[in-house]
Amino acid sequence: xxxxxxxxxxxxxxxxxxxxxxxxxxxxxxxxxxxxxxxxxxxxxxxxxxxxxxxxxxxxxxxxxxxxxxxxxxxxxxxxxxxxxxxxxxxxxxxxxxxxxxxxxxxxxxxxxxxxxxxxxxxxxxxxxxxxxxxxxxxxxxxxxxxxxxxxxxxxxxxxxxxxxxxxxxxxxxxxxxxxxxxxxxxxxxxxxxxxxxxxxxxxxxxxxxxxxxxxxxxxxxxxxxxxxxxxxxxxxxxxxxxxxxxxxxxxxxxxxxxx
Length: 260
Fold this sequence. Notes:
The structure is a single chain. The chain is α/β, with parallel strands linked by helices. The protein has a single domain, classed as 4-Layer Sandwich (Metallo-beta-lactamase, Chain A). Helix content is 13%, strand content 32%. The chain is built from 4 helices and 19 strands. It has helices at 68-71, 84-92, 183-193, 223-232, and strands spanning 2-5, 11-15, 18-22, 30-31, 40-43, 55-58, 80-82, 98-100, 106-109, 113-122, 128-136, 142-145, 163-166, 170-173, 177-180, 197-200, 207-210, 217-220, 238-240. It has a 7-stranded mixed beta sheet with strand order 9-10-11-12-13-16-19, covered by helices on one side. Strands 1-2-3-6-7-8 form a 6-stranded mixed beta sheet, covered by helices on one side. Strands 4-5-17 form a 3-stranded antiparallel beta sheet, with no helix packed on it. A hairpin with a 2-residue loop joins strand 2 and strand 3 (18-22). The longest helix is centred in the last third of the chain and has 11 residues, at 183-193. The two termini are 29 Å apart. The chain crosses the membrane at residues 20-39.
């Protein structure tokens, strides 16, 4: 397994010999619904589109996960696995091989990597987007991704999971209303899944935001404050924030198999 973070929620995941581009925002600004005055994200670094992509994986249809400007630069013939909302976005852009996954449905890539959709972030009162569990069928190594810190209790049945990509540092409106859930939910998730690594996702140091909303967004917690919480709860999970653009290979240990 090798992971490359491109800041925000954009990742290149290499598992089972396949290259999966997850929620790519690599070029241009991030604007929601042409409302740049409300909030606009700019990356200090423009990242090239990775080569030899086997699959694009999209968790949400919003612009920070299905970024139109980036998706327009990618070969439309690359297969896409997406939430129902994200599938609408890529189909409108002309992608030709789109598989929609509802919660608890699975897709198998080249008989070597299983991708399972799980309930993720609520977007409005009636829409819950996707999180994903990726599992190498030969080794059993697994990865879980949810970009806003909303974790379904149904995940417990998939434990343990080796690597988790989710917010550790949260973001709130006015310091009260969570936008990205952080420390408390990340700790609960680690208790459920017993991961070997938890890696911070969502906006990092390479992204700056401007607009009206930025004045009411406040960070919640730090990685440094989270580490002792793991120790206090007898968890050996390593927590990291990667440097954008630099590949990382987690040193994973095979799990002991318990026979009932």
